[in-house]
Every structure is written in structure tokens, then in C-alpha cells.
Specification:
Strand order of the largest sheet of chain B: 3-6-7-2-8-1-9-10-11
Distance between the termini of chain A: 13 Å
CATH architecture of the largest domain in chain B: 3-Layer(aba) Sandwich
Helix content of chain B: 25-40%
CATH class of the largest domain in chain A: Alpha Beta
Number of domains of chain A: 2
Largest sheet of chain B: 9 strands, mixed
Radius of gyration of chain A: 22 Å
Strand content of chain A: 15-25%
Mean pLDDT of chain B: 95
Low-confidence stretches of chain A: none
Shape of chain B: elongated
CATH architecture of the largest domain in chain A: 3-Layer(aba) Sandwich
Oligomer: heterodimer
CATH superfamily of the largest domain in chain B: P-loop containing nucleotide triphosphate hydrolases
Number of domains of chain B: 2
Order of helices and strands of chain A: EHEEEHEEHEEEHEHEHEHEHH
Strand content of chain B: 25-35%
Low-confidence stretches of chain B: none
Distance between the termini of chain B: 13 Å
Largest interface: A-B, 65 and 59 residues
Mean pLDDT of chain A: 95
Helix content of chain A: 25-40%
CATH topology of the largest domain in chain B: Rossmann fold
Number of helices of chain B: 11
Largest sheet of chain A: 9 strands, mixed
């Protein structure tokens, strides 16, 4: 299975819109949404099956049993995450700050601290002719990289024979992005022609390079600044990164999303440009088998 | 007054709103907590920057003292330690710096050293104090850098605008916890609404008061308008999509300084936020 991941560094450049269009063009039968912090792909890929939902457990969380606690404060003083506070006359764990390291339980002289399983998200897997793996991280939970890895594993296990998988990534360069990049064949980066977009593009390109993954770049909303688009294209050329096309700003893109459609099904300038970007990207994906 | 600006979805205009609010507020501090992709400094172009590294702690094993008892390896819940050739070895990218291995070692063989994960840049743009957290490339956890940025910026009684990362995971929570009012920037699309609902849930759990800014408005998106009405959250302002703003944004120019209608808009927004905070 060839895995194509769509990333951007900066948020809101059009990752999900592009992923949904590619799924349409390729008639892809395997796809995943790795933006577990703010998933959206399910809103625009019309699935005709119901998903199997599974609970995702993250790090355990500490709980202090008040009847055993003598209020010595050793746990609060030892916790590196400032997760234990003295509130209303007793020590209590802030579940959002606790990383489940177990140090508090180790230092407590009263054995008043236990570590409990914690639901950190929900995974959803749509099976059938088309397989779609997605997940939602529970609010304020960490370890999203582990959930991203679980989303990808679920896809590979449910659709081992599919030739192509299209994976929608998350913004940024941190934990979930690093987990998304691991094991994919190529990354398509959707850049925005703003100075912020350019700065973020450079950071995500370097991150992908550190992880040793091939990248190609396109620019979305190119007409907002042809000058910056030109600069991005030249930057890619100078660094030997294939530039796979420009997509114009198109009001119909958000209109398509708002009615739950993929741009692949809406005739408009952005669709025509995306189709060319798709063809170029597939050529790179097939050609450069590493 | 500490205002957090967040959105769930990326690219809705958090930095645009934060930067212009900070400029509209006199003597404000702007803190960029989107440490994975910090952009506020591109607009504010701060001068006199002082940069300080952010470190997390990693264990060092003294092989002379280590008896090979494995207690540290067994204790580590993150599987960041492996037992290789009778000695423990750390995988830095998985270590959470909890200090557990130091505590459990009966031979006193574990010490810690600082490992750089990012930096805090502190400068000034006119009367705006600009604090930027920058995560090093290839580092997984943004949280230590966000904590350091907040610690650097949240001093004294200055008005503060916190530009949060996208999403609703732990880095966002860390940024929002420090605020006393949240501005939620939403885009009038199905994606924008879906992610707005996620952050509203978070803000409510943290018991913060909040208001909504609808950005890049073309036609009203009825499901978003309906959500705002039903949730009872005030729409603080609607910013129309305009080519002028898109071009200023592309060139990293501050709208408040170059566009009269933006100046009026952000002055009004600031007054409305101040009125909300006083309630």
C-alpha cells in the first residue's frame, strides 16, 4: 500500500479539502484522518456504513483517596507537572495536567494514590468497500501521537490489499505530526502564499527532512499573493523539492464543504487546478519508490 | 485582563485577531503559544529581542554506580528506558522528564541534565511586549515551551493577549488555563463550526467566559449562526472576507495600522471584550 500524507504546518491552508478531493479523484478505498485534535474529514466523505467505535485509553491518571491521605504534600512537591494542588482542605489531582508517570504513587507514604485507566479518545473505523479510519481525541488530553499511530494501524489492518491510502494530517510540527509522518511513502504539503505560510512551510519541510520522508509542495489560494507563490516555487526548486501546482482561491470550495461535498464533484476552477496537482502528486508517488 | 484567542480549526485567523487586539490595547503583552508554528512575530517584527533556551530534563546514568537492578526501567511508564547489555539507556524523544528514575534508583546512579527543546524570544513592538515560544524542529512536546512562554509573559498586571495553538488537546488547555476570557475565532464553514463546538466544550469545562468572532465572513452560514444563538455565546463581531485583508495578511502587515475600517473594528471588539470581562 502506498501511503500519501497531506500536511501543511500552518492550519487552515486546505489539507482536508485537498484530501477529500484526492479521495474523489483516485476513487480511493482507504483513507484516514490523523488530525485527532480537530477532525473534519468525516464531514465531507460520504460513507454508507456505520463506524465501529472503540475506546482509546491513553496514559493512566492518578487519583488520591481522601480517606488515606494525611496531607503531607510529598506528592505535590514531587510532581513535575504541577498536577497536584491543595484545594478545599485536601490534595487533589488535576486530570488535565497529570501525565500518569506514577511518581506521586511511589512517594506517598500512605499508599493513598492509585493510577486509573483514562479514556483519552474514541476511534471510529468504517469498513466495507471503502475503509475510513478516524478518531477524536478527548478534550485536553495529551499523547495524541499514540492515537494517530492507532488510527494508521487500524487503517492498515482493515485494508491491507488497497493500493493507495490518503491520510489527512494535522497542523503544526509536533507530536501528532511526527506520528503521522512515520511510515508514509510521501508527504504533500499544502502551503499558503503568506509570509506566515512560507515560514511554516520551511519548518514542516525541515521536520519531514529530519524524519527522512520525501515531500512535494503545492500552493493553495495562490492568487492571494502571486509574489509569495513565486517565492515558494523558487524556494522548492532551489531545494530540489518537486512543486506540484497552484490552486486559486475559490469561494466554491467552502460552499462545497458546507453541503458535505468533495471538490472533486463540483466543477469549478479550484477543482480543475486540484486535478492537475493530483496527477503530478501521483506521478511523484509512483515514480520515486524509495 | 488576560485574553486567550483560540479556534480549534487552524487558519481561522487566531494570529490576525490576537495581533490586532494587542496593538489596539495599550501597553499590552502578546504571547505566541502556537510554538509549533509561531507567526505573530512576523507581523509585530519585535526589536531588542532577548532569547532564552527552554530545557527539559533527561536522565544520565552513571555506569560505575549502576548495579543493573532494572528498577528504573521497570518504573518508567512511558517505556522511555531500555535495558541494553545490563545497563539502562534513555530514548530522549519518549522521556516525559518525570524524574521517576532518579527517585527509584537505590544506588544513586541517575542524575539529570537539561536538554534544549525550544526557546523563548522576548522583544518589543512599540508599547507591545512580544513573547514568542519556538519549539525546536523534531521535538514532540510543545507543552514545556508553552509553559515557559506563559511564565515569561504573564508578569504583573499588564493586559495580555495569548495566541493559542489550533486543536483542543493539551497544548491548548495549557494556554487557556492562564486566561480570564476566551475569544473563539470561527470560520463560517462546516469545518469551522465542528471545531468551534469542540473548543466551546473545553472552555465550558474550564469555566471560562467567552465570546465568538466570526472571521472571513462571506454569506452567513446558518448552522453557525444557529449554534451561536442556541449556545447563548455572544458574537462579538463579524469580520467580512476582504481582498484587502487577505493581501495585508499575506504580506504580514498589521491591519490595525494600515486599514481604517480594521482600526474601528478592533477598537470596538476590545471595548466589547472589556465590557464582557467586567460582567
Amino acid at each position: 500500500m502506498k501511503k500519501l500524507l497531506i500536511l501543511s504546518g500552518k492550519g487552515g491552508t486546505g489539507k482536508t479539502t485537498t484530501a477529500a478531493a484526492f479521495i474523489g479523484f483516485a476513487k480511493a478505498e482507504a483513507f484516514a484522518d490523523c488530525d485527532v485534535d480537530a477532525p473534519n474529514l468525516h464531514l465531507v466523505v460520504q460513507m454508507d456504513t456505520k463506524p465501529e467505535q472503540t475506546t482509546y485509553y491513553g496514559s493512566q491518571k492518578a487519583t488520591i483517596q481522601p480517606e488515606k491521605c494525611v496531607g503531607c504534600g510529598l506528592c505535590a512537591n514531587t510532581c513535575r507537572f504541577h498536577a497536584i494542588r491543595f484545594e478545599a482542605g485536601r490534595y487533589a489531582v488535576n486530570e488535565y495536567a497529570c501525565e500518569g508517570c506514577g511518581v506521586c504513587a511511589y512517594v506517598c507514604p500512605q499508599q493513598a494514590v492509585t493510577l486509573e485507566a483514562d479514556i483519552a479518545g474514541i476511534q471510529a473505523l468504517y469498513r466495507g468497500k471503502r475503509v475510513f479510519s478516524t478518531a477524536t481525541l478527548r478534550m485536553g488530553r495529551g499523547n495524541s501521537g499514540k492515537l494517530v499511530a492507532a488510527v494508521k494501524t487500524a487503517l492498515s489492518e482493515a485494508a491491507p490489499d488497497k493500493e493507495l491510502a490518503i491520510i489527512d494530517g494535522s497542523p503544526g510540527i509536533g507530536c501528532p505530526v511526527i506520528a503521522s509522518i512515520s511510515g508514509v511513502d510521501m508527504v504533500l504539503i499544502i502551503a499558503e502564499p503568506s509570509l506566515s505560510g512560507f515560514s511554516d512551510l520551511k519548518r514542516i519541510l525541515k521536520t519531514a527532512a529530519i524524519l527522512g520522508t520525501r515531500t512535494v509542495v503545492c500552493v493553495n489560494k495562490a492568487d492571494v499573493s502571486l509574489e509569495n507563490t513565486e517565492a515558494i516555487e523558487q524556494f522548492c526548486e532551489a531545494h530540489g523539492i518537486p512543486f506540484v501546482g497552484r490552486i486559486p482561491y475559490d469561494h466554491q470550495a467552502s460552499m462545497a464543504i458546507n453541503v458535505g461535498m468533495s471538490l472533486a464533484d463540483v466543477p469549478c476552477p479550484a477543482r480543475d487546478a486540484l486535478q492537475k496537482v493530483y496527477a503530478q502528486t501521483m506521478k511523484q508517488l509512483q515514480g520515486g519508490a524509495a | 485582563m488576560k485574553i486567550a484567542v483560540l479556534s480549534g480549526k487552524g487558519g481561522t485567523g487566531k494570529t490576525f485577531v490576537s495581533v490586532n487586539l494587542a496593538v489596539a490595547t495599550q501597553n499590552a503583552t502578546y504571547i505566541d503559544c502556537d510554538v509549533e508554528e509561531p507567526n505573530g512575530h512576523l507581523f509585530l517584527k519585535p526589536e531588542h529581542i532577548q532569547a532564552n533556551p527552554v530545557h527539559t530534563l533527561l536522565p544520565d546514568f552513571n555506569t560505575d554506580k549502576c548495579t543493573g537492578c532494572r528498577k528504573c526501567v521497570d518504573f518508567c511508564r512511558f517505556n522511555a528506558l531500555a535495558f541494553i547489555k545490563g545497563k539502562p539507556k534513555v530514548f530522549p524523544e519518549i522521556c516525559h522528564s518525570c524524574g521517576g528514575c532518579v527517585l527509584v534508583c537505590p544506588a544513586g546512579a541517575v542524575a539529570e541534565h537539561g536538554h534544549p527543546v525550544g526557546r523563548i524570544e522576548h522583544g518589543a513592538f512599540g508599547d507591545v511586549s512580544v513573547v514568542t515560544g519556538v519549539l525546536n524542529l523534531g521535538e514532540a512536546s510543545a507543552v514545556p515551551v508553552i509553559r515557559a512562554a506563559l511564565a515569561e509573559g504573564l508578569t504583573g498586571e499588564r493586559h495580555t493577549v495569548i495566541d493559542c495553538p489550533p486543536g483542543s488537546g493539551c497544548p491548548v488547555l495549557e494556554s487557556v488555563s492562564a486566561s480570564d476570557y476566551c475569544v473563539l475565532v470561527a470560520e463560517p464553514t462546516a469545518f469551522g463550526l465542528h471545531n468551534l463546538q469542540m473548543v466551546v466544550e473545553m472552555v465550558r469545562l474550564l469555566k471560562k467566559s467567552c465570546g465568538i468572532v466570526i472571521n472571513k465572513m462571506e454569506d452567513p452560514y446558518e448552522p453557525l449562526e444557529g449554534f451561536c444563538r442556541q449556545s447563548g455565546i455572544r458574537v462579538l463581531c463579524r469580520i467580512p472576507y476582504s481582498e484587502t485583508l487577505a493581501k495585508l495578511n499575506a504580506a504580514a502587515q498589521i491591519a490595525y495600522e494600515h486599514d481604517e475600517s480594521s482600526r474601528v473594528l478592533f477598537d470596538t471588539l476590545l471595548q466589547r471584550i472589556e465590557a464582557e470581562v467586567k460582567l
